[in-house]
Amino acid sequence: MRAGNIIKRTVLTAAALGAAFVGGVAYPTLHAAHDMGAFRTAVGLVPSQVGAALFTAARGQDNTPSPSDVYADVLTTLQNNYYGLKDYGGQYGGTGITLGAGKGDQVSVTKIDPNSPAQQAGIQVGDAIETLDGKPVTSTPEIDLNTMLWGAPGSTIALTVSRAGAAQAVPITIKRALLPREIDATQMTYNGIRGMMGSLKDRYTRFMDPTAYKAMMEENQGEFVGIGAELSTNKAKQVYVVKVLPKSPAMKANVMAGDIILRVDGHSTFKKPDTDVVKLIHGEPNTKVTLTVLRKTDTKTIVIPRGVVKQEIVQHAMIDPVRKIGYISLLQFNEESDTQVTQALRDLQGQGMRGLIFDLRGNPGGLLDQAQMVASRFIEKGPIVWIKSRSETMQTMENLPVDPSLHQGLKQFPLVVLVDGGSASASEIVSGAIKDTHSGVLVGEKTFGKGLVQTIMPLADRSAVAITTQHYFTAAKNDINHKGIMPNIVVKFTDDQTRKHYAYQRDHPDAFYDLKNDPQLQRGVQELEQGKQFASATPRNWPN
Question: pTM for the complete prediction?
């Protein structure tokens, strides 16, 4: 655990512990691929785009219906015959209106159910709702608006709407009714796939709908379309800006740390998790997002053009300028990891670094080829990880070796790697290889223990499945699945240290390490300062 990025780490680690791991394409296929940019492997939180996969289901020679035929028959039967009622929380009626964000702070009608009370009353898509039963919608939390549309069947609700071309607001009264539930074939199919995956009782084999898959691809690529502001939730359950990234659209638009976000494109953030607010802010390139923020006592409206924002996954500093001890933290393994780690190494090396602490705590994993490259920066020779498919044995499985070309221009230093229960998958590959090859010392707590590889298979509608296809072993062929890696030196936080550490992060939101209250970091520094190897070490060039 370290100060700074606690919010990021909490989200990532929760995802890891919640079985949001994906990753891994068969090693022989990866090894044979010529275009590594188009054929990536993931063994942690973030997936990568791999070649398209086709799933076929064929009938047998005796024309016995396949499971896919039966599934299609059930879906068709439901679409043609099902007559259930929409559930509005008991015996409530609805209007058939779907509300969404309009221009500025407006709330507009985005959808009307066919033959619904709203359609019969003359409501039109695009109508801007000004009042519901006399209450202005712009001052009403969005979560309450849909609730206000519910009511006893036969009861009425009065709306005032503004409509394009109308000189003044139009009053409309709608009588609520019980509405038939629509069959969403797409969602039913997705849920069917989720059930299929769930029947395997494999926490890592799962389905991603197009939205989830797109988000994970962005995570994997190390960049996203947004404004470049990190968000969190304060004690009053308000979403606020923790940090504005340098040179980001948010910084150019004068968004400031501490700004409380009230609305995003007219959507209230009231009672919304900060992760949902982030989703509202993200969007397509070259589009704009409008934030309504509270800055101290002033309310401001800020229009921000969305742009491509690179994630900050690596942070570094010379934490002991006298003894020249450098520090690098890596939050995850995506396409930017090796590039950013190498830049940090070169910067610290230029400052005369003589020892390094590499922090992988809370890092849930990522791309396998990035793990190979990062490990190659620290390990002189030997296998990094062994990978076994279902058709291979321990004797025939293959390994990913150190890439000697990645030693170019770098020096070898005494190394301490910090790990904990949130260090998983690709983090365990790197830390396990460093431990097994005696390239460094691990300090902290036992790692998570994920030794499985998932293949990411994109589907035709831009959804994807992650399927467990391989088992991996550390450089010394140790099986860590459900076991984890025990560090060379075990150091745990006390409750008092944890409280002080979080207090420090709260008071220093830009800090990414805490030498005063972090016992694991303190022990890492001590190991380098007092170690005989460090005391007598003179950096030597890596072999070319």
Answer: 0.70
